[in-house]
Amino acid sequence: MELTEIDNDDIEAFLVESNESLSQIERDIIELEKASVNRAALDRIYRSLHTLKGNCGFLPFPKLESLAHAGESLISCLRDSAKPSLENNSDRNVAVTPQIITALLQTVDSIRQLLSQIQTTKQEGDADYSTLICALTKLQENQQVIAVLSSSPTQPSEVEESAITGSESAYIRVNVSLLDQLMNLVGELVLTRNQVIDLSQRYKDSNLRATCQRLNLITSQLQEEVMKTRLQPISTIWQKFPRVIRDLAIAYGKQVTVEIQGADTEVDKSIIEAIKDPLTHLVRNCIDHGIESPTHRHTAGKSTTGNIYLKACYENSKVNIEISDDGRGLSPAELKMRAQQLGLVTPTQVEIMSDAAAINLIFLPGFSTAAQVTNLSGRGMGMDIVKSNIEKINGTIEIESQPGQGTKFQLKIPLTLTIIPALIVKSHGDRYAIPQASLQELVRLEPEQAHQQIETFYDVPVYPLRGNLIPLVNLNQVLHPSNPPHSALSTQHSALVLVVIQADNYQFGLIVDAVEDIQDIVVKPLGKQLQALSVFMGATIMGDGRVALIIDAVNLAKQAGLYEKHQLLSSHSDAHIPTEPEERQLILLFQGPQGAHMGIPVAIAFRLEEIPATAIEKVGNQDVVQTAGRILPVIDLQRIFPSQQPNPNKETETLQLVIVSPKVGLSVGLVVERILDIVEEPLTIKGMPSRPGVLFCAVIQGQITEILDIEAVINMVNPYLLQVSDRG
Hints:
The chain has 22 helices and 29 strands. The protein is α+β, with helices and mostly antiparallel strands. The protein folds into 5 domains: 3-155, HPT domain (Four Helix Bundle (Hemerythrin (Met), subunit A)); 176-230, Histidine kinase  CheA-like, homodimeric domain (Helix Hairpins, Orthogonal Bundle), CATH 1.10.287; 233-414, Heat Shock Protein 90; 419-571, CATH 2.40.50.180; 584-727, CATH 2.40.50.180. It has a 6-stranded mixed beta sheet with strand order 10-14-15-13-12-11. Strands 21-25-26-24-23-22 form a 6-stranded mixed beta sheet. A 5-stranded mixed beta sheet has the order 2-4-5-7-6, covered by helices on one side. Helix 1 packs antiparallel against helix 4, helix 4 packs antiparallel against helix 5 (130-150) and helix 10 runs antiparallel to helix 15 (383-392). The relative contact order is 0.06.
């Protein structure tokens, strides 16, 4: 059969299946090195090579077929040697030597090279693999001799084929470009949804509002499901690390093991692509600079084998990734000296620099501890590039290190970049979006508070937020430098709105004119003319059709010179400035309509109950329920916030009820989606209310939380209940 007769789709399907099998083969070979008697790994490798060989014969690709056959024969020999004897049913030891492991890994690399050549040219190329095939054959012959000399009669060899289960038919292959196009269309639908909802709020038509509520619900569900199709487990990156770590450890003459947790943690495909190289560089750093040689580890009283730990988990709507080692750790004194030798810091800066700041020196452009560039270190990606790439996807990276004990790199990255929740703010008549991942808190200061509590240190306006000095930046001034400096702080006659933002390892307060609401926004890339504006990470289209720029918090902080200001303020440890006493309150957190985080003070929460939906009755226009020997008015929060569509299956559900008593003699049951937690938080500083029925907003447990105004909620549904209570 000529290659020209083979359909390109057949070749593409062959390449996809072969590359997937190759990744699994590579992982199983690494497992063999850990434990020679691993029958499951041997069986998987054998089946995969057997299938690859058969497919090559059909296409045909004779070089690839010969290489796969040589590897299959060696694995078959190992499988036969590992089979239990007739006299003893336990597995026998198999001589899987380092030479066999190395040859098998070279086979994987050669097969991968051939597949790449076929993908590019549809041909196998001119590369000669006869030397590798001869080496595999020789290893097979040696293994057969060992088996004959040391084994007793074995059971007949059988090819253990895996059965195709019915569940496999539930999956199909879809081109990534099709998913990208589908995601773009969903993004456009979200924008259109926002515009339609904006129109529905202008026109008081109940039919239009109901239709918009349904559109909102369906769009949100569609958005969530489509985003799931782009999620990939982080194991797609980590599955390559055992091989990388093995090769580097051999090259450096070290002994290293790797432990992986949370490999099934899923992240958007675009995030996976963005963090692949930075994570690989961090792993290389752990082996190159972290793990000591066996001799040094023995001298230090450690095990001669070093350990690298990879961990991933979800944390506050982000993915937390940790890469750590138990090596030598970082020495702040050595880092300071090296940075000074490279001319990156001055002696004066070194004298006042803390240990934490010294560790962060490794992020400076041009910083390196390598004495000379080799083929294993100094490969073009320094820690400054790692940090920059992480920040480009709105992520952060932090370092914890103890000399002699090890180093941990902690990354926090968003789940997706395409559609994100963001806070919409106003400044100088324009609207801007701040990703929720950067937000810490919303603060509203009345004119008198601003005058009393905001002071200036080193020409920097600062605000004491629970005992910590945070520098303030006027967004209007950053974007319009021609305006008078600190104009928002002088002769202030209206309330001052601060958005507290986390940038790198410190906070700052961004002064804006007004705060609007949290919205799901579609991130659009900036045009070439605007890409030089580093303070913006993209743009989005609002409900009224106007464009809002998305603020890059880290670059905004850099442009405002906050790093230097933060250093000065950190050294001002003796500052005596007025601070507010912390009045901590217990807050009941619950999930409201469409997953919104909401809360009420526990002081007005009477108790929590679960009731069947069928227990709710209607008296006049008021829903009620019989509980604890009395008739209790019930308010479903789905009715309060008109952007939501009531759940059509409510009659079959068990409802969660929060019974509140905002006034003496008045108790009402609130129907919520789910009770989350009870936390103790200071609520003396209140952010802007987001919509009717909300008292104010605050950031609790990393989430913007709407604290409900219970009396306003009751008044919106049935003001008569408040009137009766006042009479009593």
